[in-house]
Queue: 2 jobs
Job 1
Amino acid sequence: MTAQNEESRSIVEGSGGSESRSRAVAPDVAFKTIGNETRLAILDALWGPMKSGTMRFAELRRTVGMRDGSQFNFHLGKLVDGGFVEKVDDTYSLHQAGARVICTLRTGYLTDHPEIEAFETAGRCYVCEAPLEARYEDEMYVVECSGCDRLHTRGWFPPNVLTGRTPEEALLVGERAMKASIALTVAGICSVCNGTTVRTLSRGPSDVPVQSGILDVERDGGIRDWYVCSHCSAWVTRSPGDAVVDHPAVVALYSNHGVDIRTCPRWELPWTIDTSVLDVVSEDPFRVRLAVAFEGDERVLTLDEAFDVVSVE
Ligand SMILES: [Zn+2]
Ligand SMILES: [Zn+2]
């Protein structure tokens, strides 16, 4: 380890030759560097698509609104030393680290904790036919039955999604983002950190590879697959129904009735939630049949262990 400045733990050179050299900052030092109102204002001033990309010292100080030039220089210097801001001659711009700080703040995850009380949304409970209700709390949206409380869908979206949108619009945006996140994760790429995800098939509660306060393994531990990131431990889970929403036979079934399935949230597709539509017809090789029904029409798909469709009836 080579000390680069007075904070001896802050910058380390990775070993392993020039091709694998890295410049790393200890996490606590990074947070200490940005934990200051003026420094966050500097990062914010440098951020945005309409900026020229660089700002000169005087312009930057004027934008932040700090009269004391030496104090301003001190804070700016800390951001440069910490790798958040790049200095070339007399101009300053953001490194990715600085940009990511501002992006994270603007999601609202760190600072805003809004709640939306339950409101009625489209769709009916597949168990009792009662209307569905959605709510948002703890940065999570939940869609449940208003009659029997059966959970239909849930997922996270950042508080910022509520800005300028009605609760119903925000709910649909969150659901769309969650579907995109699942698609990326299933492709082996963690949607949080782009690390590698590992898949596990669960057949029952004891197979669930995730421990989380939001999981009820008796309810959630049926036939599903689970993707856990090897790097950051973020996870998503998918039902066999989730795996076939873009299969041509399913897309055509909905299209025949004038509905674009891509616009349907999962709570309007009961066969993605209802486990009674599943039937394990073979153990070795593993085969599960899934009945996809819509407006009196039905397709029965047989899926293998990877949830790939092997036949359609
Ligand atoms: Zn119900
Ligand atoms: Zn990850």
Job 2
Amino acid sequence: MSDTDYNINWFPGHMAKAMRQIREKLNLCDVVIEVLDSRAPFSSINKALKEMIKDKPLLFVMNKIDMADERVTKEWLAELNKTTMTVCLNSLDGVGNIKIIEDALAKLLKDKIDKAASFGKSIYPIKAIVAGIPNSGKSTLMNNLAKRKAMTTGDKPGVTKSQTYLKASDKLILLDNPGILWPKFENQNQAKLLCLIGSIKDEIVPINVISEFGIDVLKRYYPNELKARFKLDTLDKTSEELLYDIGRKRGCLLRGGEIDIDKANEIFLRDLRSGKIGRMTFERVGEPL
Ligand SMILES: Nc1nc2c(ncn2[C@@H]2O[C@H](COP(=O)(O)OP(=O)(O)OP(=O)(O)O)[C@@H](O)[C@H]2O)c(=O)[nH]1
Ligand SMILES: [Mg+2]
């Protein structure tokens, strides 16, 4: 199979199960918090989740803003807020995150809170389902809000295996969930973007498919950063040729002097994912992938 007709899908049984478990908890919870990756705010929205939760109140959290392009984050924040209440934050930092979330939930659930109050009752503590694509930072956000490391986290998709409750404050109880995708990607570029940000397992897709896609995106949105990081003279080449150039610049050589292209792919992806090339957002409002 050639790379161009390579079809990415990743919806193993455990994700179908995780979807079912979320559905089972909907009636017990007040709201769903969907954690998005700010580097891909649109592609990280799980439409199957929205279909399942129907009219349940939904809050988007654009996470990892420290890795994303500040200007583009503002644009996405305004765009997403048109249809769904959205906040943005960095889950590795910020004692103020709990206030951001509690304030947003108070706004989102205002009618329910006011109605309960009129009967002398309270809906607090609010119970929130925390869901989203793998590796978006759900468990990290929960630990940050609760101010203790209760959930296991890790820099790869599929770390959380089961549902777990965590009390974040007197006003908020969270339910962590395994990351979920959906059965079929209509747009394969979206799937590649999810690989690029580490939300689809690397083992699913040949590494060059992802790194070549990454080069294409950077050529489009961050050409200067790409050139500077790898000391490239020109970007006027195919993505594959540029990865060979990167290999040459970084001394990725096989015995006999040939370029070790696998190594070059790895270095490029590692630099990109760790933010070494710069803070980046890989998709723009109104510009299809
Ligand atoms: N830079 C940065 N890294 C973050 C942020 N939030 C989470 N991470 C990192 O992202 C990786 C994934 O975090 P997790 O909390 O395990 O993600 P998850 O959504 O629970 O992942 P699964 O359980 O696999 O679905 C970890 O390496 C975290 O340290 C953030 O706001 N900024
Ligand atoms: Mg997790």
